[in-house]
Amino acid sequence: MSLDKDTVKNIAYLARIRVGDDKLGPLAGELSTIMGWIEQLQELNTDGVEPMASVAAMSLPQRRDVVTDGNCRDAVLKNAPDAEDGFFAVPKVVE
Amino acid sequence: MADLTQFTLAEARDALAKKDFSAAELAETYIKAVQAGRDLNAYITETPEVALERARESDDRRAKGAPIGAMDGLPIAMKDLFCTEGVLTTAASHILDGFVPPYESTVSANLRSAGAVMLGKTNLDEFAMGSANITSYYGPVKNPWKAKGGANVGKDLVPGGSSGGSAAAVAAGLAMAATGTDTGGSIRQPASFCGITGLKPTYGRCSRWGVVAFASSLDQAGPMTKTVRDAAIMLGAMAGHDPKDSTSAAMAVPDFEAALTGDIRGLNVGIPKEYSMDGMDPEIQALWDKGQEWLKAAGANIKQISLPHTKYALATYYIVAPAEASANLARYDGVRYGLRVPGESLDDMYMNTRGEGFGEEVQRRILIGTYVLSSGYYDAYYIKAQRVRSLIANDFKTAFKDVDVILTPTAPTAAFPLGEKQEDPVAMYLNDVFTVPTSLAGLPGMSVPAGLSKDGLPLGLQLIGRAFDEETLLRVAGVMESAAAFSFHHGLEV
To answer: ipTM more than 0.90?
Structure first.
Protein backbone atom coordinates (compact mmCIF):
# COMPACT_ATOMS: atom_id res chain seq x y z
CA MET A 1 0.00 0.00 0.00
CA SER A 2 1.52 3.24 -1.11
CA LEU A 3 0.15 6.64 -0.15
CA ASP A 4 0.66 9.58 -2.47
CA LYS A 5 0.93 13.24 -1.54
CA ASP A 6 -2.72 13.95 -2.30
CA THR A 7 -3.87 11.14 -0.02
CA VAL A 8 -1.67 12.44 2.80
CA LYS A 9 -3.00 15.95 2.22
CA ASN A 10 -6.53 14.65 2.45
CA ILE A 11 -6.06 12.63 5.64
CA ALA A 12 -4.18 15.54 7.20
CA TYR A 13 -7.20 17.70 6.43
CA LEU A 14 -9.55 15.06 7.90
CA ALA A 15 -7.38 15.04 11.04
CA ARG A 16 -7.21 18.86 11.00
CA ILE A 17 -3.42 18.92 11.05
CA ARG A 18 -1.62 21.58 9.02
CA VAL A 19 1.12 19.86 7.04
CA GLY A 20 3.38 22.06 4.93
CA ASP A 21 3.61 21.20 1.21
CA ASP A 22 7.32 20.45 1.64
CA LYS A 23 6.49 17.82 4.28
CA LEU A 24 3.89 15.94 2.22
CA GLY A 25 6.47 13.99 0.19
CA PRO A 26 8.56 12.70 3.12
CA LEU A 27 5.41 11.95 5.13
CA ALA A 28 3.93 9.99 2.22
CA GLY A 29 7.13 7.91 2.17
CA GLU A 30 7.07 7.22 5.92
CA LEU A 31 3.38 6.38 6.03
CA SER A 32 3.74 4.11 2.98
CA THR A 33 6.53 2.22 4.76
CA ILE A 34 4.36 1.75 7.85
CA MET A 35 1.28 0.75 5.85
CA GLY A 36 3.39 -1.61 3.72
CA TRP A 37 4.62 -3.33 6.85
CA ILE A 38 1.08 -3.55 8.23
CA GLU A 39 -0.03 -5.21 4.99
CA GLN A 40 1.27 -8.57 6.33
CA LEU A 41 -2.04 -8.99 8.16
CA GLN A 42 -3.77 -9.61 4.85
CA GLU A 43 -2.04 -13.00 4.51
CA LEU A 44 -3.95 -14.23 7.57
CA ASN A 45 -7.36 -15.83 7.08
CA THR A 46 -9.75 -14.27 9.59
CA ASP A 47 -13.03 -15.51 8.13
CA GLY A 48 -15.53 -16.11 10.89
CA VAL A 49 -13.34 -14.51 13.60
CA GLU A 50 -15.15 -11.96 15.74
CA PRO A 51 -13.52 -8.52 15.84
CA MET A 52 -12.31 -7.70 19.35
CA ALA A 53 -12.92 -4.12 20.44
CA SER A 54 -12.14 -4.61 24.11
CA VAL A 55 -10.53 -7.24 26.29
CA ALA A 56 -12.74 -6.38 29.24
CA ALA A 57 -15.01 -9.40 29.57
CA MET A 58 -17.92 -7.43 30.90
CA SER A 59 -20.98 -5.56 29.79
CA LEU A 60 -20.92 -1.84 30.29
CA PRO A 61 -22.13 -0.91 33.74
CA GLN A 62 -25.31 1.12 34.01
CA ARG A 63 -26.26 3.74 36.53
CA ARG A 64 -29.28 5.91 37.28
CA ASP A 65 -29.77 8.75 34.84
CA VAL A 66 -29.18 11.51 37.35
CA VAL A 67 -26.81 14.46 37.52
CA THR A 68 -23.65 13.44 39.37
CA ASP A 69 -21.43 16.39 38.60
CA GLY A 70 -21.64 20.02 37.59
CA ASN A 71 -21.77 23.56 38.91
CA CYS A 72 -18.10 24.00 38.13
CA ARG A 73 -18.23 26.39 35.17
CA ASP A 74 -15.20 28.37 36.22
CA ALA A 75 -13.10 25.24 36.70
CA VAL A 76 -14.15 24.04 33.24
CA LEU A 77 -13.19 27.34 31.64
CA LYS A 78 -10.02 27.87 33.65
CA ASN A 79 -7.70 26.33 31.07
CA ALA A 80 -9.38 27.80 27.99
CA PRO A 81 -7.05 29.82 25.73
CA ASP A 82 -9.94 32.23 25.23
CA ALA A 83 -13.07 32.40 27.38
CA GLU A 84 -15.63 35.21 27.52
CA ASP A 85 -18.72 35.69 29.68
CA GLY A 86 -18.72 32.10 30.81
CA PHE A 87 -18.27 30.65 27.32
CA PHE A 88 -15.46 29.19 25.24
CA ALA A 89 -14.60 31.74 22.54
CA VAL A 90 -13.73 30.60 19.00
CA PRO A 91 -13.10 32.39 15.69
CA LYS A 92 -16.29 33.59 14.01
CA VAL A 93 -18.16 30.64 12.46
CA VAL A 94 -21.28 32.30 11.02
CA GLU A 95 -20.97 35.42 8.86
CA MET B 1 22.66 8.28 58.46
CA ALA B 2 22.36 5.68 55.73
CA ASP B 3 21.90 6.95 52.17
CA LEU B 4 18.13 7.26 52.08
CA THR B 5 18.02 7.18 48.28
CA GLN B 6 19.16 3.53 48.44
CA PHE B 7 16.07 2.43 50.36
CA THR B 8 13.30 0.44 48.77
CA LEU B 9 9.66 1.26 49.51
CA ALA B 10 9.43 -1.73 51.86
CA GLU B 11 12.60 -0.78 53.74
CA ALA B 12 11.62 2.88 54.06
CA ARG B 13 8.10 1.94 55.16
CA ASP B 14 9.53 -0.17 57.98
CA ALA B 15 12.13 2.46 58.91
CA LEU B 16 9.45 5.18 59.05
CA ALA B 17 7.35 2.96 61.31
CA LYS B 18 10.36 2.57 63.63
CA LYS B 19 10.91 6.35 63.44
CA ASP B 20 14.49 5.90 62.17
CA PHE B 21 13.86 9.06 60.16
CA SER B 22 10.88 11.25 59.33
CA ALA B 23 8.94 11.51 56.09
CA ALA B 24 10.08 15.15 55.88
CA GLU B 25 13.74 14.10 56.09
CA LEU B 26 13.10 11.52 53.41
CA ALA B 27 11.38 14.08 51.17
CA GLU B 28 14.20 16.61 51.66
CA THR B 29 16.80 14.00 50.71
CA TYR B 30 14.92 13.18 47.52
CA ILE B 31 14.24 16.81 46.62
CA LYS B 32 18.01 17.38 46.71
CA ALA B 33 18.63 14.24 44.67
CA VAL B 34 16.09 15.38 42.06
CA GLN B 35 17.83 18.75 41.76
CA ALA B 36 21.27 17.15 41.57
CA GLY B 37 20.06 14.74 38.87
CA ARG B 38 18.58 17.33 36.49
CA ASP B 39 21.04 16.43 33.77
CA LEU B 40 19.03 13.23 33.14
CA ASN B 41 15.94 15.35 32.28
CA ALA B 42 13.82 12.76 34.07
CA TYR B 43 11.35 15.31 35.43
CA ILE B 44 9.29 17.83 33.48
CA THR B 45 7.94 19.47 36.64
CA GLU B 46 9.42 19.23 40.12
CA THR B 47 7.00 19.75 43.00
CA PRO B 48 9.16 20.17 46.11
CA GLU B 49 6.51 22.20 47.96
CA VAL B 50 3.87 19.53 47.37
CA ALA B 51 6.34 16.88 48.51
CA LEU B 52 7.26 18.67 51.73
CA GLU B 53 3.65 19.47 52.57
CA ARG B 54 2.54 15.86 52.11
CA ALA B 55 5.58 14.55 53.98
CA ARG B 56 4.77 16.80 56.95
CA GLU B 57 1.14 15.65 56.83
CA SER B 58 2.43 12.08 56.95
CA ASP B 59 4.64 12.84 59.93
CA ASP B 60 1.65 14.46 61.67
CA ARG B 61 -0.47 11.35 61.08
CA ARG B 62 2.22 9.21 62.66
CA ALA B 63 2.70 11.61 65.57
CA LYS B 64 -1.03 11.65 66.29
CA GLY B 65 -1.42 7.91 65.91
CA ALA B 66 -3.86 8.47 63.02
CA PRO B 67 -4.42 5.65 60.49
CA ILE B 68 -1.36 5.12 58.28
CA GLY B 69 -1.61 4.30 54.57
CA ALA B 70 0.28 1.56 52.74
CA MET B 71 2.72 4.11 51.30
CA ASP B 72 2.64 6.73 54.00
CA GLY B 73 5.51 9.18 53.64
CA LEU B 74 7.13 7.37 50.68
CA PRO B 75 8.42 9.72 47.95
CA ILE B 76 7.41 8.79 44.41
CA ALA B 77 7.38 10.34 40.95
CA MET B 78 4.26 10.66 38.81
CA LYS B 79 4.43 10.11 35.06
CA ASP B 80 3.28 13.37 33.50
CA LEU B 81 0.35 11.60 31.88
CA PHE B 82 -1.64 11.55 35.13
CA CYS B 83 -3.73 14.65 35.74
CA THR B 84 -2.78 16.21 39.04
CA GLU B 85 -4.94 18.92 40.58
CA GLY B 86 -3.21 22.29 40.56
CA VAL B 87 0.00 20.88 39.04
CA LEU B 88 0.99 21.37 35.39
CA THR B 89 0.19 18.27 33.31
CA THR B 90 1.77 18.13 29.87
CA ALA B 91 1.77 14.58 28.41
CA ALA B 92 5.17 15.88 27.16
CA SER B 93 3.29 17.71 24.40
CA HIS B 94 3.43 21.31 23.25
CA ILE B 95 -0.33 21.14 22.66
CA LEU B 96 -1.03 20.95 26.42
CA ASP B 97 0.95 24.13 27.15
CA GLY B 98 0.04 25.51 30.53
CA PHE B 99 -2.64 22.91 31.29
CA VAL B 100 -3.29 22.78 35.04
CA PRO B 101 -6.01 20.20 35.72
CA PRO B 102 -8.75 21.18 38.16
CA TYR B 103 -9.05 17.49 39.12
CA GLU B 104 -6.90 14.55 40.18
CA SER B 105 -6.64 11.22 38.34
CA THR B 106 -8.01 8.26 40.30
CA VAL B 107 -4.64 6.47 40.43
CA SER B 108 -2.76 9.51 41.73
CA ALA B 109 -5.60 10.19 44.18
CA ASN B 110 -5.39 6.57 45.39
CA LEU B 111 -1.65 6.94 45.91
CA ARG B 112 -2.18 10.16 47.77
CA SER B 113 -4.80 8.50 49.98
CA ALA B 114 -2.24 5.78 50.70
CA GLY B 115 0.05 8.54 51.97
CA ALA B 116 2.51 8.66 49.06
CA VAL B 117 4.49 11.87 48.64
CA MET B 118 4.70 13.27 45.08
CA LEU B 119 8.13 14.61 44.08
CA GLY B 120 7.13 15.76 40.62
CA LYS B 121 5.94 14.82 37.17
CA THR B 122 8.25 12.69 35.03
CA ASN B 123 9.16 13.01 31.38
CA LEU B 124 7.78 10.63 28.74
CA ASP B 125 7.37 10.25 25.02
CA GLU B 126 4.80 12.73 23.74
CA PHE B 127 1.36 11.30 24.57
CA ALA B 128 3.21 8.08 25.54
CA MET B 129 3.95 7.39 21.87
CA GLY B 130 7.49 6.10 21.62
CA SER B 131 9.98 3.54 22.86
CA ALA B 132 13.03 5.70 23.60
CA ASN B 133 11.70 8.85 25.27
CA ILE B 134 12.95 10.92 22.35
CA THR B 135 9.61 12.33 21.21
CA SER B 136 9.05 14.52 24.30
CA TYR B 137 8.53 18.23 23.65
CA TYR B 138 10.62 18.71 26.79
CA GLY B 139 13.63 16.92 25.34
CA PRO B 140 14.99 13.39 25.66
CA VAL B 141 15.69 11.61 28.94
CA LYS B 142 19.11 10.06 29.52
CA ASN B 143 19.46 6.56 30.88
CA PRO B 144 21.53 6.70 34.11
CA TRP B 145 23.34 3.55 32.98
CA LYS B 146 26.43 3.75 30.77
CA ALA B 147 28.01 1.01 28.69
CA LYS B 148 31.18 -0.41 30.27
CA GLY B 149 32.44 -1.83 26.99
CA GLY B 150 31.62 -2.19 23.32
CA ALA B 151 30.79 0.42 20.70
CA ASN B 152 28.62 2.55 22.97
CA VAL B 153 31.10 3.42 25.72
CA GLY B 154 30.75 7.05 26.75
CA LYS B 155 27.53 7.58 24.79
CA ASP B 156 24.28 8.78 26.34
CA LEU B 157 21.77 5.96 26.14
CA VAL B 158 17.99 6.13 25.89
CA PRO B 159 15.97 5.03 28.95
CA GLY B 160 13.34 3.34 26.78
CA GLY B 161 9.82 4.60 26.57
CA SER B 162 7.33 5.82 26.91
CA SER B 163 7.73 5.87 30.71
CA GLY B 164 11.42 6.79 30.31
CA GLY B 165 11.50 9.60 32.88
CA SER B 166 9.91 7.35 35.52
CA ALA B 167 12.37 4.52 34.79
CA ALA B 168 15.41 6.81 34.82
CA ALA B 169 14.25 8.52 38.03
CA VAL B 170 13.87 5.24 39.90
CA ALA B 171 17.14 3.81 38.53
CA ALA B 172 19.08 6.95 39.47
CA GLY B 173 17.58 7.30 42.95
CA LEU B 174 15.58 10.42 42.04
CA ALA B 175 12.42 8.73 43.30
CA MET B 176 11.84 5.67 45.42
CA ALA B 177 9.29 4.44 42.88
CA ALA B 178 7.24 5.92 40.07
CA THR B 179 3.99 5.47 38.22
CA GLY B 180 4.06 4.44 34.60
CA THR B 181 1.50 3.69 31.94
CA ASP B 182 1.74 0.91 29.40
CA THR B 183 -0.09 0.73 26.08
CA GLY B 184 2.25 -1.61 24.18
CA GLY B 185 5.23 -1.94 26.51
CA SER B 186 5.71 1.54 27.95
CA ILE B 187 6.28 0.30 31.51
CA ARG B 188 8.08 -2.97 30.79
CA GLN B 189 10.58 -1.93 28.09
CA PRO B 190 11.97 1.14 29.96
CA ALA B 191 12.11 -0.97 33.15
CA SER B 192 14.28 -3.45 31.24
CA PHE B 193 16.49 -0.67 29.80
CA CYS B 194 17.04 0.95 33.22
CA GLY B 195 17.41 -2.18 35.37
CA ILE B 196 14.23 -1.77 37.42
CA THR B 197 10.99 -3.70 37.93
CA GLY B 198 7.96 -2.66 35.89
CA LEU B 199 4.48 -4.14 36.15
CA LYS B 200 1.66 -3.62 33.68
CA PRO B 201 -1.43 -4.92 35.47
CA THR B 202 -4.41 -6.59 33.85
CA TYR B 203 -6.50 -4.19 31.79
CA GLY B 204 -9.15 -2.90 34.20
CA ARG B 205 -7.09 -3.35 37.38
CA CYS B 206 -6.20 0.36 37.66
CA SER B 207 -8.59 3.14 36.74
CA ARG B 208 -7.84 5.11 33.57
CA TRP B 209 -9.85 8.09 34.80
CA GLY B 210 -7.78 11.26 34.66
CA VAL B 211 -4.96 9.62 32.69
CA VAL B 212 -4.36 11.41 29.38
CA ALA B 213 -5.71 8.86 26.90
CA PHE B 214 -3.62 7.32 24.10
CA ALA B 215 -5.35 4.05 23.10
CA SER B 216 -8.21 3.43 25.50
CA SER B 217 -8.60 -0.32 24.94
CA LEU B 218 -4.91 -0.85 25.80
CA ASP B 219 -3.82 1.88 28.25
CA GLN B 220 -3.10 0.66 31.76
CA ALA B 221 -1.26 2.27 34.68
CA GLY B 222 1.23 0.38 36.81
CA PRO B 223 4.14 0.64 39.23
CA MET B 224 7.84 1.08 38.37
CA THR B 225 9.96 0.10 41.33
CA LYS B 226 13.33 -1.16 42.52
CA THR B 227 12.03 -4.54 43.65
CA VAL B 228 9.20 -7.01 43.16
CA ARG B 229 8.03 -6.44 46.73
CA ASP B 230 7.81 -2.71 46.03
CA ALA B 231 5.75 -3.44 42.93
CA ALA B 232 3.33 -5.45 45.06
CA ILE B 233 3.04 -2.65 47.63
CA MET B 234 2.53 0.07 45.04
CA LEU B 235 0.10 -1.87 42.84
CA GLY B 236 -2.06 -2.41 45.90
CA ALA B 237 -2.14 1.35 46.48
CA MET B 238 -2.89 2.20 42.83
CA ALA B 239 -5.53 -0.41 42.01
CA GLY B 240 -9.21 -0.60 42.74
CA HIS B 241 -12.63 -0.32 41.19
CA ASP B 242 -13.60 3.13 39.97
CA PRO B 243 -17.13 3.87 38.75
CA LYS B 244 -15.71 6.80 36.75
CA ASP B 245 -13.94 4.34 34.40
CA SER B 246 -16.51 2.02 32.83
CA THR B 247 -13.78 -0.54 32.03
CA SER B 248 -12.50 -0.59 35.60
CA ALA B 249 -13.02 -4.07 37.05
CA ALA B 250 -15.40 -4.32 39.99
CA MET B 251 -13.06 -6.60 41.90
CA ALA B 252 -11.50 -6.44 45.33
CA VAL B 253 -7.79 -5.63 45.49
CA PRO B 254 -5.89 -8.59 46.93
CA ASP B 255 -2.99 -8.25 49.35
CA PHE B 256 -0.34 -8.52 46.65
CA GLU B 257 2.55 -8.52 49.10
CA ALA B 258 1.13 -11.63 50.77
CA ALA B 259 1.51 -13.42 47.43
CA LEU B 260 5.31 -13.25 47.70
CA THR B 261 5.68 -16.62 49.37
CA GLY B 262 8.76 -17.63 47.39
CA ASP B 263 7.14 -21.00 46.72
CA ILE B 264 6.59 -21.82 43.06
CA ARG B 265 6.92 -25.61 43.33
CA GLY B 266 4.70 -27.34 40.81
CA LEU B 267 3.81 -24.18 38.90
CA ASN B 268 3.85 -24.53 35.13
CA VAL B 269 5.90 -21.96 33.24
CA GLY B 270 5.28 -21.63 29.50
CA ILE B 271 8.04 -20.87 27.00
CA PRO B 272 6.51 -19.69 23.73
CA LYS B 273 8.52 -20.95 20.78
CA GLU B 274 7.43 -18.02 18.59
CA TYR B 275 9.42 -15.60 20.79
CA SER B 276 12.67 -17.20 19.57
CA MET B 277 12.98 -14.96 16.58
CA ASP B 278 15.36 -15.16 13.68
CA GLY B 279 18.41 -13.06 14.29
CA MET B 280 17.71 -12.82 18.00
CA ASP B 281 20.59 -11.47 20.06
CA PRO B 282 22.38 -14.52 21.55
CA GLU B 283 22.75 -12.62 24.83
CA ILE B 284 18.99 -12.25 25.11
CA GLN B 285 18.50 -15.94 24.30
CA ALA B 286 21.12 -16.90 26.91
CA LEU B 287 19.41 -14.79 29.58
CA TRP B 288 16.06 -16.30 28.69
CA ASP B 289 17.57 -19.82 29.04
CA LYS B 290 19.00 -18.82 32.40
CA GLY B 291 15.58 -17.59 33.55
CA GLN B 292 14.13 -21.02 32.71
CA GLU B 293 16.89 -22.72 34.74
CA TRP B 294 16.23 -20.47 37.74
CA LEU B 295 12.53 -21.25 37.78
CA LYS B 296 13.16 -24.96 37.22
CA ALA B 297 15.62 -25.01 40.11
CA ALA B 298 12.92 -23.45 42.28
CA GLY B 299 10.60 -26.34 41.52
CA ALA B 300 8.56 -25.06 38.58
CA ASN B 301 7.85 -27.13 35.47
CA ILE B 302 9.03 -25.66 32.21
CA LYS B 303 6.69 -26.31 29.29
CA GLN B 304 7.12 -25.42 25.64
CA ILE B 305 4.02 -23.66 24.35
CA SER B 306 2.88 -22.07 21.12
CA LEU B 307 1.36 -18.62 20.59
CA PRO B 308 0.96 -18.98 16.83
CA HIS B 309 -0.19 -15.45 15.96
CA THR B 310 2.67 -13.66 17.73
CA LYS B 311 4.24 -12.41 14.52
CA TYR B 312 1.11 -10.45 13.65
CA ALA B 313 0.86 -8.63 16.99
CA LEU B 314 2.94 -5.56 16.14
CA ALA B 315 1.15 -4.86 12.88
CA THR B 316 -2.19 -5.33 14.65
CA TYR B 317 -1.10 -2.94 17.38
CA TYR B 318 -0.03 -0.31 14.85
CA ILE B 319 -3.56 -0.26 13.46
CA VAL B 320 -5.53 -0.48 16.70
CA ALA B 321 -3.46 1.97 18.76
CA PRO B 322 -3.22 4.77 16.16
CA ALA B 323 -6.93 4.36 15.33
CA GLU B 324 -7.87 4.87 18.96
CA ALA B 325 -5.30 7.64 19.33
CA SER B 326 -6.67 9.55 16.36
CA ALA B 327 -10.08 9.57 18.04
CA ASN B 328 -8.76 10.37 21.53
CA LEU B 329 -6.52 13.18 20.34
CA ALA B 330 -9.34 14.87 18.42
CA ARG B 331 -10.08 16.73 21.67
CA TYR B 332 -6.98 18.93 21.32
CA ASP B 333 -8.58 21.66 19.28
CA GLY B 334 -7.26 24.89 20.79
CA VAL B 335 -10.63 25.65 22.36
CA ARG B 336 -10.84 24.13 25.81
CA TYR B 337 -7.28 23.86 27.08
CA GLY B 338 -3.65 24.11 26.08
CA LEU B 339 -2.15 25.70 23.02
CA ARG B 340 -4.08 27.80 20.51
CA VAL B 341 -2.49 29.01 17.30
CA PRO B 342 -4.81 31.62 15.74
CA GLY B 343 -6.25 31.22 12.25
CA GLU B 344 -8.64 33.01 9.92
CA SER B 345 -11.47 30.55 10.43
CA LEU B 346 -12.32 27.90 13.00
CA ASP B 347 -10.90 25.18 10.73
CA ASP B 348 -7.74 27.23 10.19
CA MET B 349 -7.32 27.61 13.92
CA TYR B 350 -7.76 23.85 14.44
CA MET B 351 -5.23 23.03 11.74
CA ASN B 352 -2.67 25.57 12.89
CA THR B 353 -2.99 24.51 16.51
CA ARG B 354 -2.69 20.80 15.78
CA GLY B 355 0.02 21.28 13.16
CA GLU B 356 2.18 23.20 15.61
CA GLY B 357 1.12 21.51 18.84
CA PHE B 358 1.69 17.84 17.94
CA GLY B 359 5.18 16.47 17.34
CA GLU B 360 6.15 14.36 14.33
CA GLU B 361 5.54 10.89 15.81
CA VAL B 362 2.16 11.90 17.21
CA GLN B 363 1.16 13.39 13.85
CA ARG B 364 2.27 10.20 12.08
CA ARG B 365 0.12 8.08 14.36
CA ILE B 366 -2.91 10.35 14.09
CA LEU B 367 -2.60 10.24 10.29
CA ILE B 368 -2.26 6.43 10.25
CA GLY B 369 -5.26 6.21 12.58
CA THR B 370 -7.31 8.57 10.45
CA TYR B 371 -6.39 6.61 7.34
CA VAL B 372 -7.28 3.15 8.69
CA LEU B 373 -10.59 4.48 9.99
CA SER B 374 -11.47 6.35 6.80
CA SER B 375 -14.26 5.11 4.61
CA GLY B 376 -13.10 2.44 2.20
CA TYR B 377 -10.30 1.26 4.49
CA TYR B 378 -12.15 0.68 7.74
CA ASP B 379 -12.94 -3.00 7.05
CA ALA B 380 -9.65 -3.79 5.33
CA TYR B 381 -7.51 -2.43 8.15
CA TYR B 382 -9.33 -1.64 11.36
CA ILE B 383 -11.83 -4.52 11.45
CA LYS B 384 -9.15 -6.87 10.13
CA ALA B 385 -6.84 -5.84 12.99
CA GLN B 386 -9.62 -6.37 15.52
CA ARG B 387 -10.14 -9.89 14.17
CA VAL B 388 -6.43 -10.66 14.45
CA ARG B 389 -6.53 -9.26 17.98
CA SER B 390 -9.12 -11.94 18.80
CA LEU B 391 -6.76 -14.61 17.47
CA ILE B 392 -3.89 -13.27 19.56
CA ALA B 393 -6.02 -13.16 22.72
CA ASN B 394 -7.19 -16.72 22.00
CA ASP B 395 -3.59 -17.91 21.69
CA PHE B 396 -3.03 -16.82 25.29
CA LYS B 397 -6.34 -18.27 26.46
CA THR B 398 -5.36 -21.66 25.03
CA ALA B 399 -1.84 -21.48 26.46
CA PHE B 400 -3.09 -20.63 29.95
CA LYS B 401 -5.04 -23.90 30.05
CA ASP B 402 -1.67 -25.62 30.43
CA VAL B 403 0.54 -23.09 32.16
CA ASP B 404 0.33 -20.61 35.06
CA VAL B 405 2.75 -18.01 33.76
CA ILE B 406 4.70 -17.38 30.58
CA LEU B 407 8.37 -16.39 30.51
CA THR B 408 9.84 -14.32 27.66
CA PRO B 409 12.49 -11.64 27.18
CA THR B 410 11.20 -8.10 27.77
CA ALA B 411 12.96 -6.35 24.88
CA PRO B 412 15.06 -7.52 21.94
CA THR B 413 18.08 -5.39 22.94
CA ALA B 414 19.67 -3.49 25.80
CA ALA B 415 19.41 0.33 25.86
CA PHE B 416 20.75 1.93 22.68
CA PRO B 417 22.37 5.35 22.16
CA LEU B 418 20.33 8.51 21.84
CA GLY B 419 19.99 9.34 18.16
CA GLU B 420 19.84 5.74 16.91
CA LYS B 421 16.80 4.16 15.23
CA GLN B 422 15.24 7.59 14.78
CA GLU B 423 15.02 7.58 11.00
CA ASP B 424 12.97 4.43 10.61
CA PRO B 425 9.68 4.35 12.55
CA VAL B 426 9.23 0.60 11.97
CA ALA B 427 12.68 -0.21 13.47
CA MET B 428 11.65 1.75 16.55
CA TYR B 429 8.33 -0.11 16.76
CA LEU B 430 10.21 -3.46 16.92
CA ASN B 431 11.36 -2.58 20.47
CA ASP B 432 7.93 -3.66 21.63
CA VAL B 433 7.80 -7.00 19.82
CA PHE B 434 7.71 -9.03 23.07
CA THR B 435 5.43 -6.72 25.05
CA VAL B 436 2.71 -5.80 22.56
CA PRO B 437 0.96 -9.22 22.41
CA THR B 438 0.29 -9.10 26.17
CA SER B 439 -1.19 -5.63 25.81
CA LEU B 440 -3.49 -6.70 22.98
CA ALA B 441 -4.73 -9.57 25.18
CA GLY B 442 -5.12 -7.25 28.20
CA LEU B 443 -3.02 -9.57 30.37
CA PRO B 444 -0.67 -8.59 33.20
CA GLY B 445 3.01 -8.47 32.26
CA MET B 446 6.04 -7.71 34.34
CA SER B 447 9.68 -6.99 33.59
CA VAL B 448 12.23 -8.10 36.18
CA PRO B 449 15.89 -7.11 35.89
CA ALA B 450 17.69 -10.39 35.31
CA GLY B 451 21.24 -9.68 34.22
CA LEU B 452 23.70 -7.50 32.37
CA SER B 453 24.70 -7.46 28.73
CA LYS B 454 28.38 -8.01 27.89
CA ASP B 455 28.64 -4.22 27.76
CA GLY B 456 27.34 -3.99 31.32
CA LEU B 457 23.79 -2.81 30.56
CA PRO B 458 20.69 -4.17 32.28
CA LEU B 459 18.43 -6.72 30.62
CA GLY B 460 14.99 -7.75 31.81
CA LEU B 461 12.90 -10.87 31.54
CA GLN B 462 9.14 -10.66 31.15
CA LEU B 463 6.57 -12.74 32.97
CA ILE B 464 3.01 -12.83 31.65
CA GLY B 465 0.10 -13.94 33.80
CA ARG B 466 -3.56 -14.85 33.56
CA ALA B 467 -6.04 -12.00 33.65
CA PHE B 468 -6.33 -10.63 37.22
CA ASP B 469 -3.74 -13.09 38.50
CA GLU B 470 -1.04 -10.57 39.36
CA GLU B 471 -0.48 -12.59 42.54
CA THR B 472 1.02 -15.58 40.72
CA LEU B 473 2.93 -13.19 38.48
CA LEU B 474 4.44 -11.43 41.51
CA ARG B 475 5.22 -14.71 43.26
CA VAL B 476 7.18 -16.02 40.26
CA ALA B 477 8.81 -12.63 39.75
CA GLY B 478 9.96 -12.66 43.36
CA VAL B 479 11.63 -16.04 42.88
CA MET B 480 13.29 -14.91 39.67
CA GLU B 481 14.52 -11.72 41.34
CA SER B 482 16.16 -13.72 44.14
CA ALA B 483 17.77 -16.12 41.69
CA ALA B 484 19.04 -13.35 39.43
CA ALA B 485 20.53 -11.51 42.41
CA PHE B 486 20.61 -8.43 40.21
CA SER B 487 22.59 -5.76 41.99
CA PHE B 488 20.37 -2.75 41.74
CA HIS B 489 23.07 -0.09 41.68
CA HIS B 490 25.62 -2.09 39.77
CA GLY B 491 27.12 -0.14 36.90
CA LEU B 492 25.21 2.99 37.72
CA GLU B 493 26.99 6.25 37.11
CA VAL B 494 25.05 9.38 37.88
So the answer is: yes
